[in-house]
Amino acid sequence: MSIPPPDGAVEQPGFGPSRARVLAALRELGGPATAAELAGRLGTHPNTARFHLEALCVAGVVSREREDRTVPGRPRTHYVAGPAPGGSRRSYRLLAEILAAQLGTSAPDPGGTAARAGRAFGRAAGAGRRHVGSDLAAAGLVVDTLSGMGFTSLPSREDPDRIRIDVTSCPFLEVATQHLDVVCAVHRGLMEGLLEATGAPLRVASLEPLVRPTHCVAHLERAVQGNGHGVVPAPTG
After folding, report:
1. Which of 48, 89, 161, 190 could form a disulfide bond with 222, CB atoms 3.0-4.6 angstroms apart?
2. What is the pLDDT of residues 23-79, one digit of tens each?
């Protein structure tokens, strides 16, 4: 049975529908739960549930605890829903701005460094997922992942070999307007890593940042056979 998100959860910055459903399911359980238990309840992969749970921990609305074991074996991690500390999102936005500013002024290649960091995160997010065999499924995976991060994404087919994704409601917009090359390179790298990790038949052809205020456009195209996804240069601005 589909579990609706709690009132107002989708409206919170950084909470997309997928993440809100995870939080709603955890709150409905009323006690500690593992990522596997929540995944079974929501009909998703445990790695997907864990990805959202860890993000909710960062947001301050979920806490994690390790079980005490009296027998050999790796202790399981349980997650518990709780109220978000006041100002936590503002604090993390400030932290993101500090890190982006430092990267932009100290790294020899800020965009390249940011893209590599995003690609590593995307590969981790795609680890354990099933192989993605079609371009529509690949686009859906990107849209769902961006939605889980708080973006609003709308895919459309440009031609038989290209898919366009219109991305709005960026939860990092305040930081991006000041450090566009860094923030957008992270997001491009994330999409690249996600597609690479799942063996998707698409690659990121380009990412157009802020074509209009709060509106970016990603273009995905079929990967060239024999070359894999390769490394697509990050945008410079």
Report:
1. 161
2. 888 888 877 889 999 999 899 898 888 888 888 876 667 887 776 656 666 778 888
Residue 173: CB atoms within 10 A of its CB come to: 17
What CATH number matches the domain at 108-222, 3.40.50.2300, 3.30.70.1730, 3.30.1380.20, 3.10.290.10? 3.30.1380.20
- Fold of the 17-81 domain: Arc Repressor Mutant, subunit A (1.10.10)
pLDDT per position as a tens digit, 86-97? 444 555 566 677
Two tokens, residue 181: 């090359």
Which three-class secondary structure state does DSSP give residue 65?
Answer: strand
Quote the pTM value. 0.58
Residue 102 has pLDDT above 70, yes or no: yes
- Contacts of 88-95 with C-beta under 8 Å, sequence gap 24+, read 88/59, 88/60, 89/12, 89/13, 89/14, 89/59, 89/60, 92/58, 92/59, 93/172, 93/174, 93/175
Locate tokens 């994404």: which residue? 153
Place of tokens 């609706």: 4
Closest Cα to residue 49, out of 79, 73, 11, 70? 79
Pull the structure tokens for residue 91.
């604090």
Whether 12 contacts 6, CB under 8 Å:
no
Whole-number Å distance between alpha carbons of 162 and 15: 28
User: What is the band of 12 on the pLDDT scale with cuts at 50, 70, 90?
Assistant: very low
Q: Retrieve residue 166's tokens.
A: 């219109």
